[in-house]
Protein backbone atom coordinates (compact mmCIF):
# COMPACT_ATOMS: atom_id res chain seq x y z
CA UNK A 1 0.00 0.00 0.00
CA UNK A 2 1.28 3.47 -0.86
CA UNK A 3 1.84 5.87 2.05
CA UNK A 4 2.47 9.59 2.26
CA UNK A 5 6.12 10.28 1.32
CA UNK A 6 8.39 10.55 4.35
CA UNK A 7 10.13 13.63 2.98
CA UNK A 8 6.89 15.55 3.46
CA UNK A 9 6.67 14.61 7.14
CA UNK A 10 8.27 17.78 8.41
CA UNK A 11 7.10 20.17 11.06
CA UNK A 12 5.69 23.63 10.40
CA UNK A 13 4.80 26.37 12.85
CA UNK A 14 1.13 26.10 13.76
CA UNK A 15 -1.09 28.02 16.16
CA UNK A 16 -3.54 26.51 18.61
CA UNK A 17 -6.47 27.80 16.52
CA UNK A 18 -5.02 26.31 13.35
CA UNK A 19 -4.41 22.99 15.10
CA UNK A 20 -8.04 22.98 16.21
CA UNK A 21 -9.18 23.74 12.68
CA UNK A 22 -7.06 20.89 11.32
CA UNK A 23 -8.60 18.55 13.90
CA UNK A 24 -12.04 19.53 12.61
CA UNK A 25 -10.83 18.91 9.05
CA UNK A 26 -9.54 15.51 10.13
CA UNK A 27 -12.98 14.60 11.44
CA UNK A 28 -14.59 15.56 8.13
CA UNK A 29 -12.03 13.68 6.06
CA UNK A 30 -12.26 10.63 8.31
CA UNK A 31 -15.98 10.47 7.66
CA UNK A 32 -15.51 11.11 3.94
CA UNK A 33 -12.88 8.39 3.54
CA UNK A 34 -14.42 5.89 5.99
CA UNK A 35 -13.59 2.38 4.87
CA UNK A 36 -10.71 3.64 2.74
CA UNK A 37 -8.24 5.32 5.10
CA UNK A 38 -7.84 5.38 8.86
CA UNK A 39 -7.33 8.42 11.06
CA UNK A 40 -3.54 8.01 11.12
CA UNK A 41 -3.32 8.35 7.33
CA UNK A 42 -5.75 11.29 7.39
CA UNK A 43 -3.70 13.10 10.03
CA UNK A 44 -0.44 12.43 8.18
CA UNK A 45 -1.89 13.81 4.95
CA UNK A 46 -3.22 16.93 6.66
CA UNK A 47 0.02 17.77 8.42
CA UNK A 48 2.14 17.05 5.33
CA UNK A 49 -0.18 19.28 3.30
CA UNK A 50 -0.02 22.01 5.93
CA UNK A 51 3.79 21.91 5.89
CA UNK A 52 3.83 22.15 2.08
CA UNK A 53 1.56 25.21 2.05
CA UNK A 54 2.62 27.06 5.20
CA UNK A 55 6.05 28.10 3.91
CA UNK A 56 4.54 30.29 1.17
CA UNK A 57 1.17 31.24 2.66
CA UNK A 58 0.38 34.95 2.44
CA UNK A 59 -2.95 34.75 4.30
CA UNK A 60 -2.43 32.38 7.26
CA UNK A 61 -6.10 32.54 8.27
CA UNK A 62 -7.00 30.56 5.14
CA UNK A 63 -4.36 27.90 5.69
CA UNK A 64 -6.59 25.30 7.39
CA UNK A 65 -9.19 25.52 4.61
CA UNK A 66 -6.57 25.27 1.86
CA UNK A 67 -4.85 22.46 3.74
CA UNK A 68 -8.06 20.44 3.87
CA UNK A 69 -8.62 20.90 0.12
CA UNK A 70 -5.04 19.87 -0.65
CA UNK A 71 -5.19 16.87 1.67
CA UNK A 72 -8.50 15.75 0.12
CA UNK A 73 -6.91 15.83 -3.34
CA UNK A 74 -3.92 13.84 -2.13
CA UNK A 75 -6.09 11.25 -0.39
CA UNK A 76 -8.23 10.78 -3.49
CA UNK A 77 -5.05 10.33 -5.52
CA UNK A 78 -3.67 7.87 -2.99
CA UNK A 79 -6.92 5.89 -3.07
CA UNK A 80 -6.73 5.67 -6.86
CA UNK A 81 -3.07 4.61 -6.84
CA UNK A 82 -3.84 1.87 -4.32
CA UNK A 83 -6.93 0.73 -6.23
CA UNK A 84 -9.20 1.56 -3.30
CA UNK A 85 -11.45 3.93 -5.24
CA UNK A 86 -11.97 3.45 -8.96
CA UNK A 87 -14.61 5.55 -10.73
CA UNK A 88 -13.35 5.20 -14.29
CA UNK A 89 -13.07 8.95 -14.82
CA UNK A 90 -9.94 10.11 -16.65
CA UNK A 91 -7.66 12.21 -14.45
CA UNK A 92 -5.49 14.98 -15.88
CA UNK A 93 -2.76 16.85 -14.01
CA UNK A 94 -1.63 20.29 -15.23
CA UNK A 95 1.86 21.33 -14.16
CA UNK A 96 3.78 24.57 -14.61
CA UNK A 97 6.48 26.31 -12.61
CA UNK A 98 4.53 28.52 -10.20
CA UNK A 99 1.02 26.99 -10.48
CA UNK A 100 -0.21 30.57 -10.64
CA UNK A 101 -1.15 31.19 -14.27
CA UNK A 102 -1.05 28.67 -17.12
CA UNK A 103 -1.81 25.51 -15.15
CA UNK A 104 -4.57 27.27 -13.19
CA UNK A 105 -6.25 28.55 -16.36
CA UNK A 106 -5.98 25.06 -17.89
CA UNK A 107 -7.55 23.52 -14.80
CA UNK A 108 -10.32 26.12 -14.83
CA UNK A 109 -11.22 25.35 -18.45
CA UNK A 110 -10.91 21.61 -17.87
CA UNK A 111 -13.30 21.61 -14.92
CA UNK A 112 -15.69 23.99 -16.69
CA UNK A 113 -15.95 21.95 -19.87
CA UNK A 114 -15.68 18.44 -18.40
CA UNK A 115 -17.90 18.94 -15.37
CA UNK A 116 -18.32 15.68 -13.45
CA UNK A 117 -17.10 13.54 -16.35
CA UNK A 118 -13.38 13.87 -15.57
CA UNK A 119 -11.03 14.84 -12.75
CA UNK A 120 -8.54 17.71 -13.04
CA UNK A 121 -5.68 18.70 -10.75
CA UNK A 122 -2.83 21.20 -10.96
CA UNK A 123 0.53 21.82 -9.32
CA UNK A 124 3.85 23.59 -9.63
CA UNK A 125 7.56 22.78 -9.38
CA UNK A 126 8.15 26.07 -7.52
CA UNK A 127 4.68 27.22 -6.35
CA UNK A 128 4.15 30.95 -6.10
CA UNK A 129 2.49 32.85 -3.28
CA UNK A 130 -0.80 33.56 -5.05
CA UNK A 131 -2.72 33.12 -8.28
CA UNK A 132 -1.80 35.61 -11.00
CA UNK A 133 -4.53 38.29 -10.61
CA UNK A 134 -4.57 38.94 -14.37
CA UNK A 135 -5.22 35.23 -14.98
CA UNK A 136 -8.14 35.49 -12.55
CA UNK A 137 -9.40 38.56 -14.41
CA UNK A 138 -9.27 37.11 -17.93
CA UNK A 139 -10.83 33.82 -16.82
CA UNK A 140 -13.66 35.76 -15.16
CA UNK A 141 -14.29 37.33 -18.58
CA UNK A 142 -15.17 33.81 -19.72
CA UNK A 143 -17.40 33.20 -16.71
CA UNK A 144 -14.89 30.95 -14.93
CA UNK A 145 -13.88 31.79 -11.35
CA UNK A 146 -10.37 30.63 -10.36
CA UNK A 147 -9.95 33.17 -7.57
CA UNK A 148 -10.44 30.47 -4.93
CA UNK A 149 -7.58 28.35 -6.23
CA UNK A 150 -4.08 28.48 -4.76
CA UNK A 151 -0.53 27.56 -5.85
CA UNK A 152 0.53 24.16 -4.53
CA UNK A 153 3.31 21.67 -5.18
CA UNK A 154 2.88 18.43 -7.04
CA UNK A 155 3.19 15.27 -4.94
CA UNK A 156 4.16 11.76 -5.97
CA UNK A 157 0.75 10.25 -5.31
CA UNK A 158 -0.99 12.93 -7.38
CA UNK A 159 1.34 12.41 -10.34
CA UNK A 160 1.02 8.62 -10.11
CA UNK A 161 -2.77 8.84 -10.02
CA UNK A 162 -3.00 10.99 -13.15
CA UNK A 163 -3.76 9.35 -16.48
CA UNK A 164 -2.34 12.31 -18.40
CA UNK A 165 0.26 14.85 -17.21
CA UNK A 166 0.34 18.16 -19.07
CA UNK A 167 3.53 20.13 -18.45
CA UNK A 168 4.00 23.80 -19.24
CA UNK A 169 7.55 25.01 -18.89
CA UNK A 170 8.73 23.19 -15.76
CA UNK A 171 11.38 21.28 -17.74
CA UNK A 172 13.54 18.81 -15.85
CA UNK A 173 11.79 19.73 -12.59
CA UNK A 174 8.59 18.03 -13.78
CA UNK A 175 8.17 14.52 -12.34
CA UNK A 176 8.56 11.62 -14.76
CA UNK A 177 7.06 8.18 -14.14
CA UNK A 178 7.65 5.51 -16.83
CA UNK A 179 4.61 4.42 -18.81
CA UNK A 180 2.56 7.54 -18.08
CA UNK A 181 1.24 9.79 -20.85
CA UNK A 182 2.97 13.17 -20.87
CA UNK A 183 2.38 16.20 -23.08
CA UNK A 184 4.37 19.43 -23.10
CA UNK A 185 2.30 22.48 -23.96
CA UNK A 186 4.73 25.16 -25.10
CA UNK A 187 3.11 28.35 -23.86
CA UNK A 188 4.70 31.59 -22.62
CA UNK A 189 4.57 32.35 -18.90
CA UNK A 190 2.12 35.28 -18.56
CA UNK A 191 3.49 36.48 -15.20
CA UNK A 192 3.52 40.27 -15.15
CA UNK A 193 1.58 40.59 -18.41
CA UNK A 194 -1.39 42.84 -19.10
CA UNK A 195 -4.86 41.37 -19.76
CA UNK A 196 -4.37 42.13 -23.48
CA UNK A 197 -1.27 39.94 -23.51
CA UNK A 198 -2.75 37.11 -21.45
CA UNK A 199 -5.99 36.71 -23.44
CA UNK A 200 -4.35 34.98 -26.45
CA UNK A 201 -2.61 32.54 -24.06
CA UNK A 202 -5.92 31.92 -22.31
CA UNK A 203 -7.67 31.20 -25.60
CA UNK A 204 -4.93 28.84 -26.77
CA UNK A 205 -5.15 26.97 -23.47
CA UNK A 206 -8.89 26.54 -23.91
CA UNK A 207 -8.38 25.23 -27.45
CA UNK A 208 -5.89 22.66 -26.20
CA UNK A 209 -8.08 21.63 -23.28
CA UNK A 210 -11.04 21.02 -25.60
CA UNK A 211 -8.83 19.00 -27.95
CA UNK A 212 -7.57 16.90 -25.03
CA UNK A 213 -11.10 16.24 -23.78
CA UNK A 214 -12.10 15.12 -27.27
CA UNK A 215 -9.12 12.72 -27.38
CA UNK A 216 -10.17 11.31 -24.01
CA UNK A 217 -13.79 10.95 -25.19
CA UNK A 218 -15.00 13.14 -22.33
CA UNK A 219 -18.41 14.76 -22.92
CA UNK A 220 -18.21 18.54 -22.70
CA UNK A 221 -20.75 21.16 -21.78
CA UNK A 222 -22.32 22.88 -24.77
From TrEMBL:
SUPFAM superfamilies: Phosphotyrosine protein phosphatases I. Gene3D superfamilies: 3.40.50.2300, Corynebacterium glutamicum thioredoxin-dependent arsenate reductase, N-terminal domain (1.10.8.1060). Residues 90-215 form the Phosphotyrosine protein phosphatase I domain. The keyword Transmembrane helix does not apply. InterPro entries: Phosphatase-like_N, Ptyr_pPase, Ptyr_pPase_sf. SMART domains: LMWPc. It holds the Pfam family Phosphatase-like_N. GO terms for biological process: response to arsenic-containing substance. It comes from the Bacteria. The keyword Glycosyltransferase does not apply. PANTHER family: ARSENATE REDUCTASE. This is Arsenate reductase ArsC.
Amino acid sequence: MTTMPHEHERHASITIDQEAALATSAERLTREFAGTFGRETIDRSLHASYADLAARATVPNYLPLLTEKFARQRLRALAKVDGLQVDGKPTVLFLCVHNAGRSQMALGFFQHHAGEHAVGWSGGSEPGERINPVAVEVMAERGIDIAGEYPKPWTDEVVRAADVVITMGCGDACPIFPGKRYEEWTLPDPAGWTPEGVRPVRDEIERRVLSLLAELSVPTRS
